[in-house]
User: Fold Retrotransposon gag domain-containing protein from Pyrus ussuriensis x Pyrus communis.
Amino acid sequence: MAANDNNDGAPRTIQDFSMPQFSSRQSCIVFSELDATSSYEIKDYVINMLPEFSGDENQDASEHVDNFLDICGTQNIKGVSDEFIRLKLFPFSLTGDARTWFKTLPARSITSWTQLSTARYWRATKNIRLFAIG
Assistant:
């Protein structure tokens, strides 16, 4: 058997291999560097104000982004760009299938708000319905 990730020589069990490795998952978002003098804190109430989007049929992704941008527009943090704030907060607005979709985006593949806001989210059920209809 292979040595474990800690390189201490102890053999790994089958259970060790079946456990998810959370620390190895990288975010799809690449954040710009902040000015060394910048310090920021995103308050809990801001996260609680964010609209939630799960990707359900009755939800409109464009409306979600508009509402999301309205909340982000209330944040003015010295030395922190609007884009940085949007990229930091957006994952907190996703739930359910939309959050699952977000987590499947390739690591370090999103470098700007424009890129993230134009990423396409299609639920598998919508695709299946499109094929069944036409």
The mean pLDDT is 83. Residues 33-118 form one domain. The CA atoms of residues 65 and 80 lie 20 Å apart.
